[in-house]
Each structure stands twice: as C-alpha cells, then as structure tokens.
Amino acid sequence: MRGGRLKGPIGSPERPASALTFRLVLAVFGAAVCLIGAVLAVLWAHSASLTVVLGAGFLAACLNVYWVSRRRRYER
C-alpha cells in the first residue's frame, strides 16, 4: 500500500469504489421507515411509548445520514 493521495478515477485499481453511497441509501431508507412508523404510532396505534421509541430511532437514523454524508464528502 502506498502512502499519499490516491490518483486515478474512482473504481480503478488505484482508487477502488466505496460502499458509502449504498450506506447512505440504506440510512435514508431507515430514517424514512422510522418516521413513517412514528407517524403511524401516533395516528393509528395511539401508543406513546412506541412513538417515543420510533422517534428516537428516527433521530438516530438522521444522525447516521449526516455522518455517512460527511464521510462521503471527506472521501472525495
């Protein structure tokens, strides 16, 4: 492994493709599922505890989306 900045196009042997884009898609999907679940818990199930758990999951998923997007930006 050589040191310094990698040269070459992404996906080439000098600079392999990253899985961070796929992780970002999964993170956004997870946030959407938690948000929809929290809304349904409020409107349909009338469950305060389930709403709190899914709301906390939504906030954690949003933090994950932010973290992965920052990693993607740093990688470029």
TrEMBL record:
Entry's transmembrane regions: 20-44, 50-68
Keyword presence, Membrane: yes
UniProt keywords, alphabetically: Membrane, Transmembrane, Transmembrane helix
Superkingdom of this protein's organism: Bacteria
Name of the protein in question: Uncharacterized protein
